[in-house]
Design goal:
Blueprint (H helix, E strand, L loop, with lengths): L5 E6 L3 H12 L4 E7 L3 H11 L2 E2 L3 H6 L5 E4 L6 H10 L3 E5 L6 H14 L3 E4 L6 H11 L6 E9 L3 H4 L15 H17 L2 E9 L11 E8 L4 E7 L7 E8 L3 E5 L6 E4 L8 E2 L15 H19 L7 H20 L3 E2 L9
Parallel strand pairs: 1-2, 1-4, 2-3, 4-5, 5-6, 7-10
Antiparallel strand pairs: 7-11, 8-9, 8-15, 9-10, 11-12, 12-13, 13-14
Length: 354
C-alpha cells in the first residue's frame, strides 16, 4: 500500500459497526472512513455525521466507488454471499463479519473467490483477538496443562427483543438466523484454533420460550476432536444475566478456567491440589462487553486494527480464514444432528483443503 490512508466503505450500520468505526478513528491518518451505507438512510446520515464519510445511495454504489479500497461488510448473514461476491469481483479488499456465510457451502464460495481475486481478505472473528483466549493459547503451547482431554465453552446472551420481533431477520433460518449459526460459529472457531479439528459431534437444540420465531434459543453441542479430546459447547440467547463467555480446558497436568464475568478472568491450575491457582495478570477484567474496556469491544478494536495494519504491511492477519470457514462446517453438522437426532461425522473435512 501507499502512504495515503486506506479508504474504507462500511456496509451495514448495526451494533458492531460502531466498534469498527471507533477502531478506524483510533488509527488516525492510516485510515479514512470514506463512505457508509445502510438500508435506513437516516441511520446512515447520523452515522456519517458522527464518524465521518459520505452516505452511499446503496450497496452497489458503495462497492463501485473508485475512491474506496476496502469494503467492511457488517450485514445480516443472508446477504453475505451476494455482497461479498460483488466486492471481490470489483477487486476490493474485504473485511466481513462472522459468520462469513449462512452455511458451509457459502463460506467456501467466498473463501475460494477471495483467493482467486488476490485481495486482502479477513473474516472478522473476534475470538482470535480476545486477551483471555490468547493467554490460553500461549499456556497450551507452553505445555502448562499437558495434553487437553476435555474442553467446554459457554456463550450466553439475551436476544429476547430481537426474537420477539417476527420481522427481524434473526427470527428466520432462511434469512440466516439461528443460535448455533450466530453463536456456535465462535466456539467452533475457538476450539479449532486452540485444539484442532473435530472428528464427530452431536447436537440438541431447544426452543424454550414461546416467542414469535422459528429458531432455537438454547443448544448443546458435544463431540470428539481428532486429538481424542472431548468437547462440549452450550449456547443460550434467553439468559437473564449479562452477555458473556466461558472457556474451560482440562489437561493431563492441569487446567485453565476463563470467565469474562469473573475477576480475575483467567486462572491456571497445576494439579488437583492447586487450590489457589495462578492468576494470569495480562488479561484485564472488562465485564461490560459492548462498551470501551469491555472484553468484546476491545477484541473487535484489535481485530479491525490487525486487518488494516496487515493490509498496509503486506502480511497475513492473525486470523487464519480456514478456521472460520471450518467453523461453518461444524455449524452445518450441528444442525444436521439436531434435525436427525444422530451423531454426524466430520472426518472427511480438513482445514488444509479449504
Amino acid at each position: 500500500m501507499t502512504s495515503t490512508p486506506v479508504r474504507v466503505g462500511i456496509a451495514g450500520l448495526g451494533l458492531i459497526s460502531r466498534t469498527h468505526a471507533t477502531a478506524y478513528l483510533q488509527m488516525g491518518g492510516l485510515v479514512e472512513i470514506a463512505a457508509v451505507c445502510d438500508a435506513n438512510r437516516a441511520v446512515a446520515e447520523a452515522f456519517a455525521e458522527e464518524f465521518g464519510g459520505r452516505v452511499a445511495d446503496d450497496i452497489d454504489a458503495l462497492i463501485a466507488d473508485p475512491d474506496i479500497d476496502v469494503i467492511d461488510v457488517i450485514l445480516p448473514h443472508f446477504l453475505h454471499i451476494d455482497v461479498a461476491t460483488k466486492v471481490l469481483d470489483a477487486g476490493k479488499h474485504l473485511l466481513i463479519e462472522k459468520p462469513v456465510a449462512p452455511n458451509f457451502d457459502g463460506a467456501l464460495t467466498i473463501q475460494r473467490k477471495a483467493k482467486e481475486a488476490g485481495v486482502h481478505f479477513m473474516i472478522a472473528e473476534n475470538s482470535r483477538y480476545m486477551a483471555a483466549y490468547q493467554a490460553a493459547h500461549r499456556l497450551i503451547e507452553a505445555g502448562e496443562i499437558g495434553d487437553v482431554l476435555h474442553v467446554r465453552t459457554t456463550l450466553r446472551s439475551n436476544e429476547k427483543a430481537h426474537l420477539s420481533d417476527p420481522d427481524n431477520w434473526r427470527c428466520s433460518y432462511d434469512l440466516g438466523g439461528g443460535l448455533v449459526l450466530d453463536t456456535g460459529a465462535h466456539s467452533f472457531y475457538l476450539i479449532t484454533w486452540l485444539l484442532g479439528e473435530i472428528e464427530s459431534l452431536r447436537g440438541v437444540g431447544k426452543k424454550l420460550l414461546a416467542l414469535p420465531n422459528e429458531i432455537e434459543d438454547t443448544a448443546e453441542i458435544t463431540g470428539q476432536l481428532r486429538s481424542g479430546a472431548h468437547f462440549s459447547c452450550t449456547f443460550t440467547s434467553i439468559s437473564e444475566i449479562p452477555h458473556s463467555e466461558r472457556l474451560e480446558l482440562y489437561g493431563t497436568r492441569g487446567g485453565i478456567l476463563i470467565d469474562q464475568m469473573a475477576n480475575p478472568v483467567v486462572k491456571l491450575f497445576r494439579g488437583a491440589h492447586d487450590y489457589e491457582g495462578t492468576v494470569i495478570d495480562e488479561v484485564p477484567f472488562g465485564p461490560d462487553a459492548w462498551h470501551p474496556g469491555g472484553w468484546h469491544f476491545e477484541s473487535v478494536l484489535r481485530e479491525v486494527t490487525d486487518f488494516i495494519t496487515s493490509l498496509i504491511d503486506g502480511v497475513p492477519p492473525l486470523i487464519d480464514n480456514r478456521d472460520a470457514v471450518y467453523a461453518l462446517a461444524a455449524v452445518d453438522a450441528a444442525y444436521r444432528s439436531i434435525r436427525t437426532g444422530e451423531p454426524v461425522s466430520m472426518a472427511d473435512i480438513t482445514r488444509q483443503a479449504l
